[in-house]
Amino acid sequence: MVRNILLKSALATLVLGLAAPTPALAQSDPLIIAHRGASGDRPEHTLAAYELAIEQGADYIEPDLVVTKDLVLVSRHENELSDTTDVASREEFEDRRRDKTIDGQRVAGWFAEDFTLSELRTLRAKERVPSARPGNARYDGLYQVPTFAEIVQLVRVKEAETGRRIGLYPELKHPTFLLEDAGIDVVDLILRELRDLNIGSDDPIFIQSFEVGTLQRLDKRSDYRLVQLIHPDGGPIDEPDMRYAEMVTPSGLAEIAAYADGIGPWLGYVLDPDTMANTSVVADAHALGLQVHPWTLRKENGFLPAPLQSSGGPAADGVYRQLWLAAIASGADGFFTDNVEEFVELAEAAGD
User: Fold this and answer.
1) Of 13, 19, 264, 336, which has the maximum CB count within 10 A?
2) Which one of 35, 45, 174, 231 is the catalytic residue?
3) Hey, what's the signal peptide range on this chain (predicted)?
């Protein structure tokens, strides 16, 4: 997912009203979805990030799933590995560097589908955005790339330890590309993995994708709850005539409701880009029985629009609370956040 940076004009009204009373949470608190784990505090998509997010109070943890050469689901933000691992510094893998066209974009680097799991195990994770999160960089080199099975095992251990259910919210990354480029069917892989891990449709799990056909296939073959991700730009790579902006219209949402249980829209679709008032998207989706889980709530200046940035550079906390409270007041059912601890604190303070 891209950074959810809103336009300056979108926040003018909010910034002018910072001294106004903050809105209270809705009667039903929204789900807290740990975006790539506690990625504001640990390098994303590591067991350490997922474990910390659970300890901080997340209801769900979100692993982005890519695939190894030997067909193992592992968690990385992208199948290209150099942004999140030390692969570029590993001489033994220098000859694995490739150029690939992924979803219409030319990408150079090292790709998970060209490595076996045992080879991937030799790599170590690193912070993807050290300019915004320099504190996370101190953990570079400590953690391996986790498999989906290991993430599930961690969740079960933490459930036993905490006595509460913890949900999974996997995203299938680039399914069309993997099928066309490497002959890897991610739908087959995730359904087989869930069966082998004894995770049923009654368990707390959502499966998400930016692609339409992937979710439609999952809908035909399973009863898992499915979420259509909706990007601020372009359209689904597997539906070239479809635009994401049209998918949040009443007719577009009705089409989504035929195969999915919810939407994961960019936050700008939920808050009006001119007034920061609620749009009709949440109400329109709810009228069709769709849940709404916008992304992504973050606190650092480097992820916030200019009017909500404070002094101190990209890593300093901005004036994020007002934006988060405005988002919560939209009535959405849950939110992806990199900062679980701060979200929990905000929710508790607003509920007092």
Assistant:
1) 264
2) 35
3) 1-26
